[in-house]
Automatic annotation (TrEMBL):
InterPro entries: BACK_BPM_SPOP (IPR056423), BPM1-6 (IPR045005), BTB/POZ_dom (IPR000210), SKP1/BTB/POZ_sf (IPR011333). Signal peptide: none annotated. One of its GO terms (biological process) is protein ubiquitination. Residues 69-141 form the BTB domain. This is BTB domain-containing protein. Belongs to the Tdpoz family. Pathway: Protein modification; protein ubiquitination.
Length: 237
């Protein structure tokens, strides 16, 4: 059967005419859409690299270049650091000290106000001062972290205290655990204290520590309650 006959019999032809219905979608301003990238009024699409913030570096330079310092801090009569009151006020202890010194000091306002600090090593204080300006701490030295934790506790720098506690938790070994445990006990660092006790009671560690003649004496003097914990853990093991 021919296509013409088939089409005629299908009923689609009427008076030899074939109707076709089409839906057409018209896009307005098609040329403008296509050329949008070339539009002079369109915003530029270039990539501009933004450098990282260098605020901490600037603050560090301000500290060590002694620009605009208004406080002199004598640390143990060994070393003097110059700083800025607006930074030192991060510590509630320093803030109170500076307010008290301001009331007592009758010298011209342009002169440095002097503060004396005892019981902190100069190198530890220097590292703490650097943290107060830059909010960063770059040391993996255990002795330094122990000293900084004590200083942070004393001057109520809570974030610094937690940073030091976290660093010390990662550096517990046979040589450092006793000293770190003493610091944790004294400054109520519960996570650090628990980590030290857990390390001491591991199989083999207690045996090695007991070989050192002053281990028990140090624990008894600095952390007497830990001896009972160690005993209970050994009994339960």
């Amino acid at each position: 059967m021919s296509t013409h006959v088939e089409t005629h019999e299908s009923g689609c032809l009427k008076d030899d005419c074939f109707a076709v219905r089409c839906d057409i979608t018209a896009l307005k301003n098609l040329k403008k859409i296509e050329n949008e990238g070339d539009d002079d009024d369109a915003p530029a699409r270039g990539v501009v690299p933004v450098p990282p913030s260098d605020l901490t570096q600037h603050l560090s330079n301000i500290l060590w270049n002694k620009r605009g310092t208004d406080v002199a801090i004598d640390v143990g009569g060994e070393e003097t650091f110059e700083a800025h009151r607006w930074i030192l006020a991060r510590s509630p202890v320093f803030e109170a000290e500076l307010l008290a010194a301001k009331k007592k000091d009758k010298s011209p306002s342009s002169s440095l106000r002097r503060i004396e600090i005892q019981g902190v090593e100069p190198k530890v204080f220097k590292a703490m001062l650097h943290y107060m300006y830059t909010d960063s701490l770059q040391t993996d030295d255990v002795a330094m972290a122990q000293g900084l934790l004590a200083a942070a506790h004393r001057f109520k720098l809570e974030r610094l205290r937690v940073i030091c506690e976290e660093k010390l938790c990662k550096h517990i070994d046979l040589d450092t655990v006793v000293g770190t445990l003493a610091v944790a006990q004294k400054h109520d660092c519960r996570a650090l204290r628990a980590a030290c006790v857990e390390f001491i009671t591991r199989p083999g560690n207690l045996k090695e520590l007991m070989k050192t003649e002053d281990f028990v004496d140090k624990i008894r003097v600095n952390c007497p309650s830990v001896l009972w914990e160690i005993l209970m853990k050994q009994v339960a093991a």
